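To illustrate the input format used throughout this study, we show a single complete record. The first block contains the structure-token representation of the backbone; no residue identities are included at this stage. The design step must infer an amino acid for every position from geometry alone.
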């Protein structure tokens, strides 16, 4: 299938792209950084998701995964508005099979930076809206909402022994997910799944049970 993923140069987005490539799919990636994946079936487009006029001309996308995101950097514009634009342009069309938005556990708890929480909360509501509109194509739309994931963006707390100990106290499973684990969820929700739609799947090791947010000042 033809898969489009945003934010593919590192972390969750890269792991998802690699998972789909391993399974034999054709993957296109959009990221404002240069490609970090070298594969015969991978095409990389260097573009900011907010640069609507210069987005690549892609048609017949079967699976769209909105992964590109930021924290404390124009969160509403990148995490929500650009996600909406990408979805309307590439996702809401007759060849679509599945749309997956990478949200955040913070959208459920509000336990993070205010604008970031608002941007991810908007993703939850928009996911339900899109699910209703793509159902006529037999397609699904869900959000995958991770808690802590071991990505470079989280190194500032992962590598701080004091903060890491506090975070583990708030996480019943006493670990964070790897990007590859989140990629497994993404693959399941977009390829294996054909019936679950309009849902927000919280994958956070149980952290949301405690509703406390710990970060470096």
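Output of the design step:
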């Amino acid at each position: 299938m033809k898969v489009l993923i945003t934010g593919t140069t590192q972390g969750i987005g890269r792991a998802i792209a690699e998972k789909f490539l391993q399974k034999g799919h054709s993957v296109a990636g959009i990221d404002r950084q240069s490609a970090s994946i070298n594969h015969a079936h991978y095409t990389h487009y260097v573009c900011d998701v907010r640069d609507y006029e210069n987005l690549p001309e892609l048609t017949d996308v079967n699976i769209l995964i909105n992964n590109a995101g930021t924290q404390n950097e124009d969160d509403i514009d990148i995490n929500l508005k650009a996600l909406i634009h990408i979805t309307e342009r590439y996702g809401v069309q007759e060849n679509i099979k599945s749309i997956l938005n990478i949200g955040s556990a913070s959208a459920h708890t509000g336990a993070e930076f205010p604008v970031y929480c608002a941007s991810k909360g908007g993703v939850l509501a928009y996911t339900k809206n899109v699910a209703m509109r793509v159902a006529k194509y037999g397609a699904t739309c869900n959000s995958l909402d991770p808690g802590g994931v071991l990505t470079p963006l989280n190194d500032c707390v992962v590598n701080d022994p004091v903060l890491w100990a506090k975070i583990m106290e708030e996480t019943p499973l006493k670990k964070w997910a790897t990007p590859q684990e989140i990629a497994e969820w993404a693959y399941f929700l977009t390829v294996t799944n054909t019936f679950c739609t309009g849902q927000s799947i919280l994958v956070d090791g149980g952290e949301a049970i405690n509703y406390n947010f710990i970060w470096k000042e």
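Structural context for interpreting the output: DSSP finds seven helices and seven strands in the chain. The first strand starts at residue 2 and ends at 6.
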